[in-house]
Specification:
heterodimer; A: 298 residues; mainly alpha; 2 domains; 16 helices; 1% strand; B: mainly alpha; globular
């Protein structure tokens, strides 16, 4: 009796175990197939970009060959971009605008996040909510009045206008995630600092910034990628080539009426995508921490 | 103890703790105010003011000389192009977000099932579309969609399919702009869901397995409820961003063919900046506001609820 009972309970369990294993193996195979399909989908444009950038214009125009491979690779497109034309100027402008934006963003949002996370003052909760709502305002809602404002300030067609405007895209989110990081620092640290006679600014500088460095790095990376990628303000406000940043400069300089210099466009685009890709490659964890801060922190 | 001589030094010494406390309290809020002042100025000067200014601009005539009330709004209502823009914006945002959410969900699950060692490498590659600035990567798509050199059409020709006019006819153009948006945005969903999946405690799955739950039941009764909040926040956030999208449509089609792919942002740009009718452009972009405001309120609710859960 006990033997039959045992076998009748064990066999299904074992069968179940076996099917679970099989199920899991099939799930893994399915997972890798899905991964492969999506990797191909995701990597196709960058791959094709790279291939085209290595072709001469003769090879691009030749319709008889396979467009996905390059037969006579050449660095001519890169060389021409870097030695003639305004590409270098656009790159320099992008670097200047981005560095200034990141610096301004970090100063504004670190100070504000410290105050909002640690000093309860009148209206601080409302302000924190307001910051979050500001983050949800897309720039496409405001670019037309901004066009008038920038014109009124005499900054139309001036890349420094970007340094003024881009913080509106970066500061709200950076402040928001840094409030989260600062709030997670134990209060005992502040008390210890206060007992040692530190003022609030010393506390911010000597304790909060070093302790929350990962969060600050994540916010910096976010500010960097946003201002490097910004498009609508530059395309609306910058018209002369020497003031343009990369996102608009490539298109405006390499397309003359109906002649598309695709090889150079792709080479220029690839080099423009390189800084964010490098930051991502070396600081992936911070990059993702900044991206998912909304999901894990608040 | 001669009061006269000592009172000068002691009186401040006695009073000072009280005084500095009060001064500290005062300094505290002053410091807080000064620390947040740049943020407040930025938000008031470059977000709130432009928004109010847009409301004012929307009531002016084209040359901005005369107040015309709501004429810009009624003018837009009478235009077929405007209704096409409304339709396309909604179609674009809803379709793209649904597809992105699905792909992101699938990829997050697939990644989560992988052994931890390989996960990083795969995740790294899958996030690349999100890392490249969209204004840059859309150039690559534009080249892939080129009417005479399209590399996609070369592949299609290889399997005997006629060339597709990717950006040339309304239906395909609508498909193409959505495809590019899906390509760019899916990794964001993936990474958000993956973060949420990792935060679901393993014990819940173990308990479900002990109770004999099937894979579908685990998904339905454990994963979904635990991720519901993140899913809704991410979807709403993405709806805002996709609805307000500019880069992709502007570069790929610039609204064409026949204004069928215009979304609010590109239409506002064409009307306001390119044709120089600033008030009408401001009016077009203001139409985005009511919908975005509703989404934003729901996001805020979700975030607040999540904060309470975490606390």
């Amino acid at each position: 009796m006990s033997a039959t009972a045992a076998s009748s309970t064990f066999t299904p369990a074992e069968r179940k175990h076996g099917s679970l294993k099989r199920e899991r193996r099939w799930a893994m195979i399915g997972a890798y197939i899905a991964l492969a399909v999506f990797i191909v989908f995701f990597m196709t444009p960058p791959f094709h970009m790279l291939m085209t950038s290595l072709k001469s214009s003769g090879e691009i125009a030749d319709l008889s060959g396979n467009p996905w491979i390059v037969r006579h690779p050449t660095l001519q497109n890169y060389w021409e971009l870097l030695t003639q034309g305004n590409y270098i100027i656009h790159f320099r402008n992008s670097v200047i605008v981005t560095l200034c934006t990141v610096a301004i963003t970090m100063v504004i949002s670190t100070m504000a996040a410290f105050a909002l996370a640690r000093m309860k003052f009148w209206g601080s909760a409302t302000l924190a909510t307001g910051v979050f709502l500001t983050y949800l305002v897309p720039e496409t809602l405001l670019f037309i009045p901004m066009f008038q404002i920038i014109g009124g300030l005499g900054l139309y067609n001036n890349m420094w206008a970007m340094v003024l405007i881009f913080p509106t895209l970066t500061v709200p989110f950076c402040t928001w995630i840094m409030i989260g990081y600062f709030a997670s620092i134990p209060k005992e640290l502040d008390e210890a600092a206060l007992i040692d006679g530190a003022g609030h600014l010393q506390m911010l500088w000597k304790i909060f910034i070093p302790v929350a460095l990962p969060g600050i790095l994540a916010a910096m990376i976010f500010a960097f990628t946003v201002s490097w990628a910004a498009f609508i303000y530059p395309i609306a406000f910058l018209v002369s080539s020497d003031q343009m940043v990369l996102t608009v400069g490539i298109v405006s300089d390499l397309i003359r009426a109906d002649t598309f210099q695709w090889g150079k466009i792709m080479a220029g685009a690839l080099m423009a995508a390189l800084p964010p890709l490098l930051v991502y490659a070396f600081l992936m964890d911070y990059y993702i921490a900044g991206l998912t801060a909304g999901a894990t922190k608040g | 103890m001669s009061q006269g001589t000592l009172s000068a030094p002691t009186a401040p010494a006695v009073v000072s703790p009280h005084g500095t406390l009060r001064r500290l309290a005062r300094r505290n809020s002053t410091t807080a105010f000064l620390l947040t002042l740049p943020l407040i100025l930025l938000v008031l000067g470059l977000v709130v003011y432009p928004f109010l200014y847009a409301l004012y601009l929307a009531t002016l005539n084209k040359r901005m000389t005369k107040f015309i009330g709501l004429d810009n709004f009624t003018f837009l209502f009478s235009r077929q192009t405007f209704w096409d823009v409304v339709f396309q914006s909604v179609l674009f945002a809803v379709t793209a977000v649904v597809v992105k959410a699905l792909i992101g969900f699938i990829l997050a699950h697939v990644l989560h099932a992988l052994p931890a060692k390989g996960q990083r490498k795969w995740r790294g590659m899958l996030l690349v579309p999100w890392v490249i600035p969209p204004a840059i990567s859309t150039l690559a798509w534009w080249w892939l969609f080129d009417p005479s050199y399209s590399a996609f059409n070369w592949v299609l020709a290889g399997i005997g399919v006629d060339p597709v006019p990717w950006l040339g006819v309304p239906g395909w153009a609508r498909f193409s702009v959505i495809l590019v948006n899906v390509w760019y945005g899916s990794p964001f969903f993936m990474i958000m869901y993956l973060a949420a999946l990792k935060s679901v405690p393993d014990q819940l799955y173990e308990a479900a397995a002990i109770d004999g739950a099937t894979g579908w039941q685990r998904l339905r009764y454990v994963t979904f409820p635990m991720m519901r909040n993140i899913i809704s926040i991410t979807v709403l956030f993405s709806l805002i961003v996709t609805f307000a999208n500019f880069d992709i449509v502007r570069i790929l089609t610039n609204g064409g063919p026949l204004d069928t792919t215009h979304v609010f942002a590109t239409y506002a740009f064409q009307v306001g900046i390119q044709s120089g009718d600033i008030p009408l452009g401001a009016t077009v972009s203001l139409f985005m506001f009511p919908l975005l405001a509703v989404f934003a309120i729901f996001i805020l609710r979700g975030v607040n609820r999540r904060n309470k859960e975490m606390a």
